Amino acid sequence: MMLIGEGFAALGYNTWTSTFCPFFNWQVLRRIAVGQQERLEAIEANDGWLSEGHGLDLTFLATAANFETRTNGATHMGNDDITTFDAVGQLRIIDVSCPQQMLSIMKWIMGGNQGLLYVRVMRTGSAVLYDSGYTFEFGKGHILRQAEGDRVVVISSGRGVHEALAAAELCAQNGVSVTVVDMPSVDEVLLLELYNSGKVLLFAEQNNGYLWQNFLKVIYRNRDLATGSLQRVVTVNTLTAEGKPQFIHSATYEELIEAFGLTPAYIAKTVQGILFTRREEN
Questions:
Q1: DSSP 113-133
Q2: How many CA atoms lie within 13 A of 259 on its CB side?
Q3: How many beta carbons lie within 10 A of that of residue 249, not counting itself?
Q4: Fewest CB atoms less than 10 Å from the CB: which of 28, 59, 80, 126?
Q5: 163 HSE (CA, 13 A, CB side)
Q6: How do residues 39-75 score in pLDDT, each as one tens digit?
C-alpha cells in the first residue's frame, strides 16, 4: 500500500494512504523518505534532473491515534508510533484534535508541495474546538484557553486537548487559572516562549511524550536564548515511571486515561499538586 502510494505520488498525484498507526512499516517509510530526499536534492541542484514542484505529495493518514483504538489492545495501540516515526528524515508529523482542524489540514495538503506527511486522526467523534475561519499552519500551536493570572500551561495534542480543556475548567472552579495549548505540530517558537515565561509547563500526552521530547530538543538547540528552568516542566504520558516505553493492553478509553492519569480530574489534581509544592518551596 505504501509503495503503491509512492508510485502515484511520483506520477504527480496528491496521494493518501491509510491504516492504523502501528501498521505503517518503518523500513518502507524510510525507503520512501530516502527517495523524497533525493528528489529534493535534485530539484535544488543546478544540474538536477527534476524541476520545482516534483517532490512527493504523499500523506500517511494514521487512524486511531493515541488511545483511540480502545479495546484493540497492544498490537493496535498508537502510543509509540509518533516518537518512532519522528526519527524518519523528511517526514512531517501532525496530530489532529478537532474535525474543523482536520478540514483545514486537508485543504492545506491539497494545495500541494507539502511533502511526506504523517497525519494522526481520532477514530471516534469529538467536539469542535475551532471555528470555520481556522487555517492550519504547519509548525504552529494554538492557545485555546488563555487564563488571566495563569501560572500553569497544559500542552497537548489530539484528543488529549479535550481532556486538558476539561481539566482547566475544573481548575477554574477551584480558583486556579490554567492556560491550554493545542500543538498539532511542533511549534518551536511557542515552546521557547512558554519555557521563558516562568510558568509551569505540563505536557499531558496520550503517547510516549512526543511534544515533550521535541520540547527538550528545542531548548537544547536554543540554549543561548532559553532562560527558563526544567524544574518547572512536568510530564504525564504513557512512559513508565522510569521513563521507559511500554505497550498498552486492552481497555476502554475511559479506563486508559484513568490508568495513565490523563483524565480531566487527574490533570487538574496534578496542576493543583504542582502549585501546592511550589508554595511549600517558597
A1: ---EEEEEE-SS-----S-TT
A2: 15
A3: 12
A4: 28
A5: 29
A6: 999 999 999 999 999 999 999 999 989 998 877 888 8
